[in-house]
Every structure is written in structure tokens, then in C-alpha cells.
Fold this sequence. Notes:
The protein is an all-alpha fold. It has 8 helices and no strands.
Amino acid sequence: AAAAAEQRREERLRRFRELHMKRYEACKLNSQEVVEEDKRLKLPPNWEAKKARLEWELKVQEKKKECAARGEDYERVKLLEISAEDAERWERKKKRKNPDLGFSDYAAAQLRQYQRLTRQIKPDLEQYEQLKEQYGEALYPTSDSLLHGTHVPSKEGVDRMVADLEKQIEKREKYSRRRPYNDDADIDYINERNAKFNQKAERFYGKYTAEIKQNLERGTAV
């Protein structure tokens, strides 16, 4: 009986030591995780992207060195490693990208307008082939060519041009530039915030105070 009791006591002590070691390991891991989390919180918000970018640049530099050591062109090797699916995905992404970066000057805006209008043109290829057969090399003028009076546009072409111009005029009329101030309106505000407040007050209570304002303007208010 005494030996059995001693054995049970040793078993309990062993389990207690195991639990103590597990608790110690858990506390140690928790402390390490707290330190790592504190480091991550102190890093800038885009640190992960910067880190990935730096790792990618290091890989590119190493690849360039390897290609230079073998006497190969890095750009050619890079293109050979790109799969057809990645190339198609990259082309689709380039097509979806909006090249319009906003207004820079009037010349750039005019160029964008010209490119947009030319992309919308649908040429008549049958008529183009007929003109090629009719005029031959004269269809492609040079600096010595006399163009005045040599070409008369068709009625369909004139109608297309008129329809396109009318569409541009209609679209331009719908565009309205934001005007923050009305020069003809009465100035009853001291700053932008006060003007907004007066507009809200007029919207909600204008119909109740219209008569009072008219009496004040006429000088008949009691």
C-alpha cells in the first residue's frame, strides 16, 4: 500500500511538472507574440507592400547579375519566362487602364478629345477600296499635291459629320460648370459655412418666412 501511494504521488508530481513547463512555454510564446505585435504596430501602414517590393527588387538584381555573368539579355530572359496567360492578363489590364490623368493644359485636353473622336470613327472600307481603284496613287497626297477641288464628299459622309457635330453640341449643352457663387443673388452670409447654413434654412423655412421678408423689403413690417 505504501509503495502504491508513493507511485501515485510520483505520478502526480510528474504531471504537475509537465503542466508547469507547458504554462512556462505558453507565457514565453505570449510574450514573444506581444513583442512582435508591438513591432508590427510601430511599422508604417504600407510596410508589407514596401517589404514585398524590396524583396522583388533584390530578386531582380540577382537575376540581372546571373544573366550578365552568362552573357544573356535580362529583358529577353524575362520575356521568355512569362507565360501566355500572364501576357494576356497584362494586355487586358493595360486596355482597361484609363489614360486620362485629368486636366493639365488645353493642348492636352484637345488632344484627348481628338483621340476620343477618332476612335469612334467607323470607316467605310468598301468606299475606300473604290477610291483606291479610282485615284490610285493620287489618293495618298504629298507636299506637292493639289488637294483643292479634287475630292467631293458623299452625301452619307456629310450626314455622318452633321450627326456627329450635333451629338457633340448636345453633349456640350448638358455639361454645366459648377459656379459656387451667384453674382445676382443677395449677399446674406459672411463665409462659406454661413452660406450653406442659410441655404438649408431657406430650404426648410423659406415658405414660412417669405411674407415677413417681403414686408421688411417694403417697409410695412409691424
